[in-house]
Amino acid sequence: MNATAVVRATPAVQLPLLRTQATGNYAAAAAFAENFAIESRNLSYSVKTRQGRILPILNDCSLSIPAGQFWMLLGPNGCGKSTLLKILGGLLNPTGGYLHVKKPRSFVFQNPDHQVVMPTVEADVAFGLGKFNITHDEITSRVAKALDAVGMYEYLQRPVQTLSGGQKQRVAIAGALAEACKVLLLDELTSFLDENDQVGVIRAVKSCLASSEGTTALWVTHRLEELEYADGAVYMEDGRVVLQADASTILNFVEDRQSSYIHQINS
Ligand SMILES: Nc1ncnc2c1ncn2[C@@H]1O[C@H](COP(=O)(O)OP(=O)(O)OP(=O)(O)O)[C@@H](O)[C@H]1O
């Protein structure tokens, strides 16, 4: 286990888990786990190359995301953020380690044009509800509530192709909320958006969490300025979780990393 990084990241949160495991107090450990929406320990993921070689992508990734909070996942290009998010979303299976993610969980992808599939906003948000055994009234009520949470209720009858990128992202998030997801996994939603839309989507997610009962969001981003909206963040490098902490600690850590990198290049 990457105990150093974990204990250093959020000692008040992490230490009781280690203690309950050490003493074998499983009831306390279970109650403690209830407070977390996402928990992984020593998670690894590797793929087999065409030559039959094992290629490690993620190593020893340990993190704990408290339920009901808005967290971000950051790190340089290619460090493994999307791969980790796909594992948390059940789209890929880890090759080692322990993982618990509260369910149902929903994954919202990067490109807004790949998110919305039905002709109108209302139909799109209702689309995923077909798999549940619920009444038409219940569907109508869930769609209205979810669109309201992302500030898009007045767009109910709008053809989706007339929406902006940020509005499409919000509709996609509403679709996930309508399915009553406990964990919302969001992969670089703002990379296709202009500045106004970026902030609009982040605020929509924050307001959804505030109006939900314990929904947790994990948001992958490259943009350090988005950290100001986060309750906490996880920083990765080279397939590993390097630090989990509150947003300002992560911001300082990444800025220090960047300035020492620039210093190295210039010296
Ligand atoms: N199926 C695969 N086969 C080979 N390499 C892979 C595979 N999946 C991911 N990788 C490699 O693993 C590394 C992590 O990829 P990933 O997309 O998770 O990174 P990321 O942090 O999300 O990157 P970015 O910020 O650029 O989107 C990259 O070097 C990528 O090329």
From TrEMBL:
Keywords: ATP-binding, Nucleotide-binding, Transport
Keyword DNA-binding found: no
Keyword Nucleotide-binding annotated: yes
The ABC transporter domain, residue ranges: 38-263
Pfam families reported in the protein's UniProt record: ABC_tran (PF00005)
Signal peptide limits: none
Superkingdom field: Eukaryota
Gene3D superfamilies, alphabetized: P-loop containing nucleotide triphosphate hydrolases
Gene Ontology biological process terms, A to Z: transmembrane transport
GO molecular function: ATP binding; ATP hydrolysis activity
GO cellular component: chloroplast envelope; membrane
PROSITE patterns from the UniProt entry: ABC_TRANSPORTER_1, ABC_TRANSPORTER_2
Protein name: ABC transporter I family member 10
Lineage, uppermost ranks: Eukaryota, Viridiplantae, Streptophyta, Embryophyta, Tracheophyta
